[in-house]
Fold this protein.
Amino acid sequence: MIDIVIDITLLAFLAITSVAIVRMTNLFAIVMLFGIFSLLSAGLFVVMDAPDVAFTEAAVGAGISTVLMLATLALVKKPREPFYNEAPHAHRAWLSLVVVAVTGAALVYGTWDIPRFGDPDAPAQTHVARYYIENALPETGVPNIVTAVLASYRGFDTLGEVAVIFTAAVAVLLLIGGRRSKPAVEKKDKREQDEA
Amino acid sequence: MMDFIIGHYNYWIVIVLMMVGLYTVISRGNLIKKIIGLNIFQVSVFFLYISLGTVEGGAAPIIAEGVKVYSNPLPHVLILTAIVVGVATTALALALVVRIKESYSTIEEDEIHNLDHSL
Amino acid sequence: MRPNLILQVVAKFVIPLMILFALYVQFHGDFGPGGGFQAGVIFSAAFILYSLVFGLDTAEKIIPAHWLRILAALGVVIYAGVGVASLLLGGNYLDYTLLGSNPIAGQHLGILLVELGVGITVAAAMLIMFFAFAGRGRE
């Protein structure tokens, strides 16, 4: 019972935080709120019996991705201004609100047929999951089923994921790894000065 | 009725988060805010998977003596790798934002459009 | 950058513990929660803390950039190499049962090596990304 109460409270916090993120315009505050959002989700993953996922989310979401976003903000903010505010948007908001409301209503209608939260007889629990839980320890000798599935049963999948991370690192290096070239405007000014 | 609400509350919040993310992506012009919107959308998908894998009264999927019911390990595996891949792709998107800022000296979508059309 | 005494003292105390914890998560991942992905991220978080407190140049002296690039590739090579090794021993690709004297030992060794490869690549990739972003701000 206490599980359910914590689950409901944390999920409500998450929804409120996400709405606050949308409504704010100060990007530094938004990035810090996003860190809080990730920490709350890590707590929720613990409540939903997924300690491995919570571990990763706490380290990645609240740690690394916040640092990367702050580093980006430091690069894109205007010099001499301590904060970065997004420009007031010129679009009318109602069109996107209609799109979002219609999509959301369709998705909520879709939840009517989903088995209820925590149902032990849901189709998701009765097929391959049962095989993993029964055979992971005898077949691999590893008590942590998540590690056994990650590295052994689905080793190909994980190899692909590692390749994706490696590729992303290479792409980031290619995009912003070197020293910054001078902005085009300054270069032109300099050339004109040289000619003069 | 109460059972139905508690049993589907997780999915409804997932949908709320998903729609908040989608709204941020389509209605805001600032590129960093768009990326944060995408991240919120992504986290909502993580919750969908983990909610589907939860079993009532289940323990974390680490085999221990005296525990009969475990939650489903498969969504955990998928989401665990998805989180790390997610931060890698977010970093790539942020790198693109930095390059856009260096070429256009703005990261607001409207201003970038105007610059493109004035050339 | 102005040195901050309190930050430096606390960081010097915390960073070794973070690295130790990362190693624990890496090698205890078979029995408790953890594994290569988590360990790699915690390990890189320790170095990011170091470079935030002591400056980027000091951090780059400890892990030079070209080392990181080699390490990121090395992790993928270890992972794929375990697969090739199991192929050469006559099994399927990434089938670890033939790596050890009995199937359980083989699985143990295979999972350990694969997780090591994952951890090295994730840690190196995260550090590469952080140094790319932080180094861009330097003139």
